[in-house]
Amino acid sequence: MSFTASASEGLIRHESPYSVDETMSRFKNIVLGKGFTVFSVIDHQQNAAKVGLELEPTQVILFGNPKVGTRLMQCAQNTAIDLPQKVLITEHENKVWLSYNDPSYLKNRHFIKGCDSVIKKVSGALGSFSKAAIAK
Q1: Cβ atoms < 10 Å from Cβ of 91
Q2: Vertex 84: Cα angle to 83 and 87 (nearest 5)
Q3: 37-43/11-16 β-pairing
Q4: Of 29, 80, 85, 89, whose CB neighbour count within 10 A is largest?
Q5: Dihedral in degrees, nearest 10, Cα atoms 69, 129, 124, 43
């Protein structure tokens, strides 16, 4: 497994030893177990197939906790465009990747001030949930 953070893209990526479906299932169960709300799971590959197009496995989960997300929006209301949190799980060249927006990137993008403790909490939670989802 590998871990990659790309500041230029604002993404943090973890390689998963599991399939896209299994990685998604594991991640979803973790966030639900922590009391978060799962708003939606979008299967882009399935949606592409419905219109006769091909796409490698690509799924997005939208999830959140209003106690945390609201605090970010109170510091910078424009943060709402990036909430709820999203995790992208893809397969490319026989590797599965779990990716999410780097909270530091969002802090800079939205000029969030006075919410460093919240950004740190979000960063820690995303890292913890992601690493647990890909753990063997």
Answers
A1: 18
A2: 105
A3: unpaired
A4: 89
A5: -50
Determine the length of the chain: 136
Integer-rounded Cα Rg, in Å, for the chain is: 15
pLDDT of 54-77, one tens digit each? Answer: 999 999 999 999 999 999 999 999
pLDDT tens-place string over residues 18-34: 999 999 999 999 999 99
In the chain, where does DSSP find H-type helix?
Answer: 20-33, 44-50, 66-75, 103-109, 116-134
Q: What does pTM read for this prediction?
A: 0.92
Crossing angle (nearest 10°) for helices 66-75 and 116-134: 140
